[in-house]
Amino acid sequence: MPDSFLLPDEVQDLEMHMRHFPNQTFICKPSRGRGGEGITLARKFSDLPKLAFTQEFLIQRYVENPLLINSKKFDVRLYVVIKGVERIEAYMCEEGIVRFCTVSKKSLSYKYRTITKSLMV
User: Fold this and answer.
1) Which domains, and CATH codes, for the chain?
2) Full-prediction pTM beyond 0.90?
3) Does residue 75 sit in helix, strand or coil?
């Protein structure tokens, strides 16, 4: 999992991290966003969305070379309930979600696209 920060609570940790790793790009996702709404990229602390300092945002290191299927980004969501940790007991939902980006990584506009198509599994 890439380096992640929950703002505004971890803003000082993020600022220090960005100073130590100035060549990293970060993806900024509002907690209340839907369908890629409000997602931006930031290279410097000053590039962060102003709302991230007052509303909840998840800031993660942008993965430059993600795993691709047919040159397209994807993600998989599985839902698991962990009932106990002393004696590990977990239950996984039989259904999940797979989402694919509609634009190939080879496209010039790829970096600014989000995963938009969903498939229930």
Assistant:
1) 4-61 (3.30.1490), 74-120 (no CATH)
2) no
3) strand
